[in-house]
Design goal:
The protein is α/β, with parallel strands linked by helices. It has 10 helices and 9 strands. The strands form 2 sheets. Strands 1-9-8-2-5-3-4 form a 7-stranded mixed beta sheet, with helices on both faces. The chain has a two-stranded antiparallel ribbon with strand order 6-7. Strand 6 and strand 7 form a beta hairpin.
C-alpha cells in the first residue's frame, strides 16, 4: 500500500511562507480548511490512496458522480506528437477531466499545472508544475523541457494560465500566452484545440470580480478552486469537444506569436 499524503493547508502555509506562518491565527487555518474542502478532499485521497494519474482521475470522477459528453475523439491521429490546448473554465476539474479522457490513451500524458496542485500527490505522475506566483524552480523548468523533447510524451496546456473570468459580459479566458506557440514551433509539435463546456459557481466569479475591482494582486480565486471541484462539479455533466490537429508549421511569420495565440484561442472557442 502506498504512503498516504493528505492535504494539510496549515503545513502548506508553513512550508511556502514560513515567515508569515506564526502570525496567522489558528481560526484562520480552520476556516481555510473548510473553504478548501480539506476533509472532503482527504476522504477522496484516502479512498484512492493506491491509484495514481489517470486511475486517480477515474476514481475522483466516480466518487463525485461527474459525467461527460465527448465528441471529436476521431480527430486525434494515431501517430504524432501533440500539445492539446483548451479553454480553462473550471481551473482544476477540467484538467482532471482531460486526464481521465486522454490519460489512458497516452501512457506518458503530462499536464502543465499551477504548482499548488502538486499537493495532490496521487496526481504528481502526470503534473508538470509552474509557479504562477513567483520565480520558477530550475528543476521544474528542466522537467517541462524534457517532456517537450520526449517523443513519447503528449502534453496538455491551458494557455490562459488562469481559469476563466467574467469578462465583457461573459465567462471566458483571459488572452492566451504566446509561449504555447513558441513551444509548439521549438518542439515541432502539432496543436490539437479542445473546448471544455462548464463553469464555476456565481460566488467564484463574484469574488474574482471584487478582487479585480479592489486591485488585489493575490489570486484569491485559487483558494476557492477546491470548493468548486468538490462541491460545484459534483453530480454534473460536462461537455468536451476535440478539434482537428493544427500543424506546427501553420504558425509562420505572417502573425506574431501573440497574435497566433489569440487565433488559437478563437479556434478553441469555435468548437463550442
Amino acid at each position: 500500500m502506498d504512503e498516504l499524503h493528505l492535504i494539510d493547508i496549515e503545513a502548506v502555509v508553513k512550508h511556502k511562507v514560513p515567515k508569515y506562518y506564526p502570525k496567522v491565527p489558528k481560526w484562520v487555518f480552520r476556516f481555510a480548511e473548510w473553504l478548501i474542502c480539506q476533509k472532503e478532499m482527504n476522504n477522496i485521497i484516502t479512498e484512492l490512496r493506491d491509484v495514481k494519474g489517470a486511475d486517480f482521475a477515474d476514481g475522483m470522477t466516480r466518487i463525485l458522480n461527474v459525467n461527460y459528453t465527448i465528441s471529436g475523439m476521431e480527430n486525434i491521429p494515431d501517430d504524432g506528437r501533440f500539445i492539446f490546448v483548451s479553454n480553462h473554465p473550471l481551473g482544476a476539474f477540467d484538467g482532471i477531466s482531460y486526464i481521465k479522457v486522454l490519460g489512458h490513451k497516452y501512457p506518458k500524458f503530462k499536464v502543465i499545472v499551477n504548482d499548488m496542485l502538486m499537493y495532490i500527490y496521487n496526481m504528481r505522475p502526470v503534473f508538470l508544475p509552474v509557479n504562477t506566483l513567483g520565480a520558477q524552480k530550475r528543476s521544474d523548468m528542466e522537467a517541462i523541457d524534457a517532456a517537450y523533447n520526449d517523443a513519447e510524451t503528449q502534453l496538455l496546456s491551458f494557455p490562459a494560465g488562469f481559469c476563466s473570468r467574467w469578462i465583457d459580459g461573459k465567462i471566458q479566458d483571459v488572452p492566451w500566452k504566446k509561449s504555447v506557440i513558441t513551444q509548439a514551433i521549438e518542439s515541432k509539435r502539432d496543436i490539437i484545440p479542445m473546448y471544455f463546456g462548464g463553469r464555476n459557481s456565481i460566488t467564484f466569479y463574484a469574488v474574482e470580480w471584487l478582487r479585480r475591482v479592489a486591485g488585489m494582486k493575490f489570486n484569491i480565486g485559487l483558494i476557492l478552486l477546491p470548493w468548486q471541484m468538490v462541491k460545484t462539479a459534483k453530480n454534473k455533466t460536462f461537455s468536451i469537444t476535440i478539434g482537428k490537429p493544427i500543424p506546427w508549421q501553420t504558425f509562420d511569420k505572417s502573425k506574431t506569436p501573440t497574435e497566433w495565440a489569440q487565433w488559437l484561442r478563437e479556434q478553441s472557442y469555435a468548437l463550442k
